[in-house]
Model the fold of this input.
Amino acid sequence: MAEIVEVLRAARNLARDNIRPGEEVLVLSSTDQHRSIHDALLAACEEAGAGRVASLLLVPEPMRAGYRHPALALAAACTADLTIVATSLAFPRAYDDLTEAVLAAGKRLVLINNAPPEDFARGAALADPVELNTTTRRLAEAVGRSRQVRVRTAAGTDLTVGVCRPCMVLTGHADDHTGFGSFPSGEAMLSVAEHTAEGRFVADAFGQVVYMEGRGPQLGLLEDPITLEFRAGRLVDLQGGSAAARLRAILAAADDTARCLAELGIGTNPMARRIGHVENKFRLGTAHIALGDNHLIGWRAASVLGGTLISGRHIDLVADDVTLELDGVAAVHGGRLLL
Done:
């Protein structure tokens, strides 16, 4: 009973920040997803004032390169005003044919990151969605107005990147500009000025590899720090123990662009936890870099918010307890936003 209450509370947070009165909503789930999430989302959308609410359940297939969603699912998503993707982690995430079709149709999509109910209902999902969106937007606007961002940590990070485009707000809210929300989340997401990264970044928390096609090895919680040195935006040295060895193998199997620094993300969610999946990188007080692709960042607004780097990998690496400076002025320190 307690789990059902928790799942419904998280679903209400998602619906509160996304449902517009009278609009049509599609909940796209899968037969291997816990039914409580599906049912809670339907109830929360109706409660929040949606018009018609429909659902589809997909049957998982063995993951393979080039997975395509069924035509029926694509057609339904392109018709609905808002699609909530609640499929299990056996399905593609974020950069796929479904997202592409929804955005091309001028509709909106919210992707649930934490598919198991024990993750969906706790941690980052409990942050006040309106407050999170407000504080993240304030930070993102400040980053976008700056010319240079510097990240430092006691573990040895001292990295600067240039700014040449607006900084994206990534929360659970799907706005009309990007058309995309990630729930639960919370970060200011900058496609850095290409070839400007200089210095050292020490990843000491978590790593995630997004494979644009197919699947491959992951990094997860880092058992020891990874030290990355950058010159003119490119990785020139990689040091560390077993975690660094895993990253080295991932890069060896990737294209050359996967060694370029593509993104700087700044965590803004005070409820996010240090656990072994994507929620880790949304924690307030952390920052992460991404190697590889940045041309899809921004989703429907990628021409404004995204960069020029095209790669088959997008590799996130998280550092704890950061100090962030915008043109020399502290914006994050001691686990707090100072703006």
In short: Helices lie at 2-16, 35-47, 71-79, 97-104, 117-120, 129-145, 242-252, 302-305.
